[in-house]
Amino acid sequence: MSQRSAGPDPKLLEILVCPLTKEPLRFDAERQELISEKAGLAYPIRDGIPIMLVDEARPLDPDSQPMIG
Amino acid sequence: MSDAMNIFDRRLLRKRRDRAAANLPAHDFLFREVADRLADRLLDVTRKFPMALDLGCHGGEIGQILEGRGGIETLVQCDLSEAMLRRAAGNGRGPVVAADEEFLPFADGSFDLVISNLSLHWVNDLPGTLAQIRRILKPDGLFLASFLGGDTLIELRRAFMDAELAEEGGAGQRVAPFADTRDAGALLQRAGLALPVVDSETITVTYADPMKLMADLRGMGETNAAAGQRKAFTRRSTLLRMMANYQQAEAGPDGRLPATFQIITMTGWAPHESQQKPLMPGSARARLSDALGSREETIRPKKDD
Question: For the whole model, what pTM was predicted?
Answer without folding.
Answer: 0.86
